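Practice problem: predict the structure.
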Amino acid sequence: MTQQIRTTLLTGFCDLVNRLHHNPETLLTSSGINPHQVSRQAGYLPLSSVTTLLQKTAQQLDCADFGLRLAHSQGVAALSFLSPAVLQSLTLAEFLKVTVDLLGKPPHSLRLALQNKDDGACFSFLCLEDLQGLTPVGTPSAPEQCREFLMGVCLVAMQTLCGDHFHLEAVHLKTRQPLHGRYKDYFKAPVHFGSDSDRFVLNSNTLLLPIEKCSTDLRALFKAHIDDLLQQGETDLLGQVEQLIDYLMPLKRCSLQEVANQLGLHKRTLQRRLRNRGLVFEDVLDRIRRERAQYYLSGKQPPMSQISNMLGYREQSSFNRACARWFKTTPMRVRRRLLADAAARAVATE
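Answer:
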């Protein structure tokens, strides 16, 4: 099994190495990586090659925190191969679950796990145990550099999705000794060394954070992914419309005209094709909004203002009126009722 990662995860490598006064092409070539492939951000790279690259770079540049530096230069590139996970998810917990499944399959074959605890969860990087066998004897820091890089990329992805609301409770590393003194600068959380696994600890409220799909940084990412889906033609018309609603709703651009534009159709043509299937666009949008609202209201978070934004409403009062129509009561009362029902079910199963 050859584990692979997307070349886009080396975004910023050349710029960072140049700023540290070294030749990036020399480092790439000596690690078995084609510099042209990196410049084009094309395809996949063997994880073993990336592991070697990070070790060589950290040593030759005398930069012990290079793995984390590179990870934190990624920005939205950290999510470039996880667009399906973002589009399918409403909360951080859902995103992590889809990510575990997505990255566990070829060509990535990376072993990750999300384990629920009493007061939160652990997101474990089991794939990092495989790094020990990827590098030659005598290069002990190679797995550690790649370990910090991959965990850093995951952190940047979650920060990009959840914004300022996101934070870690703690970070556990199997590395026995710190490589540098900047862990708290990057992770903003207590870091424990010599642990039994590499993992992030998150609390329950953090897991319930909504994915901020209205982020400007994510728009181009979503658009490219949806364009790919539409070109592949693997999704029927209703599926395409639903995907576009998920994308456009948080941007407050979810109209029949905008969806038709994305599909390359005239508005009347889209109306007719939906009508031939017994569908009306406004009904599809309303159903999706109601489903999303009920899901969000089933937990203590997120706050009402965030739910309203995620559903594409410009005013909180519009969301309140929609809840009155859907559920015959206010959003707050819906949340209380759903939480009470969940508590009663939990007691009944004990």
